[in-house]
Amino acid sequence: MADVKAKAAPAPAPRVSVGDFVRQVRTETARIAWPSRRETITTTIMVLIMTSLLSVFFLGVDQALGRFVKFLLSLAG
């Protein structure tokens, strides 16, 4: 039989004071590379265009499948 060894539970993370936590959050926030206004607008427009194209595509697929199912049901009934 295979030996089953119990894994040790990971040690809990040391507690951090509220002041240390706030300092860590500020440090991490300063490292973030925020997008420029132009990048944000460009990305938003691209998302809206792609969402619109996909909605039209799925509308077409849904209509085609719906008509196909109606056709199959008309043959059965």
Which structural traits does this protein have?
77 residues, 2 helices, mainly alpha
Question: Your description of this structure?
Answer:
With 77 residues, this protein is mainly α. It has a domain at 37-77. Helix content is 70%, strand content 0%. The protein contains 2 helices and no strands. The chain has helices at 18-31, 37-76. The radius of gyration is 28 Å and the shape is flat. The mean pLDDT is 90.
Number of helices: 2
State mean pLDDT (0 to 100 scale): 90
* Shape estimate: flat
How many strand elements? 0
Portion of residues in beta strands equals under 5%
- Major sheet description: none
Proportion of residues in helical segments: over 70%
* Helix vs. strand class: mainly alpha
Rounded Rg:
28 Å
Question: Uncertain spans, ≥5 residues at pLDDT below 50?
Answer: none
- What pattern of helices and strands is seen along the backbone? HH
- Oligomerization state of this entry? single chain
Query: Termini distance?
Result: 62 Å
Write the layout of secondary structure elements.
Elements (H helix, E strand, L loop, with lengths): L17 H14 L5 H40 L1
In summary, what is this structure?
The protein is an all-alpha fold.
